[in-house]
Amino acid sequence: MRYGAADGTKDKVRSAGRALEILTFLARRGEAPLGEVSRYLGLRKSTVHRFLSTLQELGYVEQDGAGRSYRPGVRALEMALLIQQKASVCDLARPYLDRLASAVRETVNLAVLDGYEVLYLDKRESPEPLTVTARVGERKPAHCTALGKALLAYLPRERLDGLLSVPVLPAFTLNSITDPEKLGQQLEQVRAEGLAYDREEVITGVRCVAAPVFDHRGQVAAAISITVPTVRMNAERERAISSLLKETAKELSRRLGWQENPGPGMGGI
After folding, report:
1. What is the pLDDT of residues 234-249, one digit of tens each?
2. Are 264 and 213 in contact (CB under 8 A)?
3. For the chain, what is the total number of helices (H) and then of strands (E)?
4. Fold: same for 2-72 and 86-255
5. DSSP string, 241-265
6. Which listed CATH number (1.10.10.10, 3.40.50.300, 1.10.10.60, 3.40.50.2000) goes with 2-72?
7. Residue 4: its pLDDT value, please?
8. Fewest CB atoms within 10 A around its CB: which of 91, 200, 224, 244?
């Protein structure tokens, strides 16, 4: 059984590799007939046809009108656009993150939503001796982070229901939100104020405020946060950095093509 499982895993990895090779080849060529893809991979046409049929069913490959050639499908194009968008957000956000970090002297993060997790894309470290930060590429649960709440608040209702339908959300500190109904109420508040808060919900002694960044379609492209040790945070400072953060998020949103025309889902940013 052990050998069979190992062989099965190797087969899956090999198949995934072949599928990626096909997508890469078609992306570079634009389109190609079955025979050409077969020669490129060095595999029989019948084998390559099975790969192409599967990719076609999943929307990653499509055929031309005559059914003679294959080309990248809508799902592949969507993936390419998402990757390009994330790279573009990182590039455009750099001066805004620099300026914000210099002004508040605290850790500043840029992140996107991946499933129900926050994925950190960029950060600026605090120069203060006491600081807490996430690593670029690190993931954290969205429901108890300020970044996550800023991103979750603008999800389509059907996607958000997938998170709120669980009976209990995992806790990381005594302050973590575990009640989906309470989280839903907080997300409504985020949409109303354009700001999200983490008050020691992930790490005891650490607070965070975040704001969403919108793109030219009026959709959330990312979120920016400021992380502050609780010992350096009081009500007055929270109001000050929240105001600065919100204005920075607005400026970056405009840079991404967002037009300030608040409506449903714009969260009063």
Report:
1. 999 999 999 999 999 9
2. no
3. 8, 9
4. no
5. HHHHHHHHHHHHHHHTT------TT
6. 1.10.10.10
7. 43
8. 91
- Going 88 to 92 to 98 to 101, the CA torsion angle's sign is negative
Structure confidence by residue, pLDDT tens digits, 126-183 = 988 887 778 888 899 999 999 999 999 998 888 888 888 888 889 999 999 999 999 9
Residue 74, Cβ density class (10 Å: 0-12 exposed, 13-18 middle, ≥19 buried): exposed
Architecture of the domain delimited by 86-255: 2-Layer Sandwich (3.30)
pLDDT band at 118 (very low <50, low <70, confident <90, very high): very high
Between CA 23 and CA 72 the distance in angstroms is 7
Query: Alpha-carbon torsion 151, 152, 155, 159, what sign?
Result: positive
pLDDT for res 81: 64
Place of tokens 């020669």: 39
- Reported as type and span, the H/E element at residue 191 is helix 180-193
Q: List C-alpha distances in Å: 134 to 139, 200, 226.
A: 8, 15, 11
* Sequence spans of domains, the chain: 2-72, 86-255
